[in-house]
Design goal:
86% helix; single chain; mainly alpha
């Protein structure tokens, strides 16, 4: 069995997607925990920063990487 059948770009993209999803899950858990323990005002003040700078920008970079991988793999 060939264990290296996917390209480096495909493996890199899948790894980034995995860690991006884990990060979103961790942020959701942190927000829920802060709401449960009554410190949601701190989470609300950090929410615009996290949404715009972290999630939106990293998500856009990840989307471009996914599209590049799809085009590269379809040509290959």
């Amino acid at each position: 069995m060939d264990t290296n059948r996917h390209s480096f770009l495909f493996r890199l993209t899948s790894r980034f997607l995995k860690y991006f999803a884990l990060g979103l899950f961790g942020l959701a858990i942190a927000y829920l925990m802060s709401a449960i323990f009554g410190s949601s005002h701190i989470a609300m003040s950090l929410l615009p920063f996290v949404l715009y700078w972290v999630i939106f920008r990293c998500g856009l970079i990840l989307l471009c990487l996914i599209l590049t991988t799809v085009i590269f793999e379809s040509v290959r």
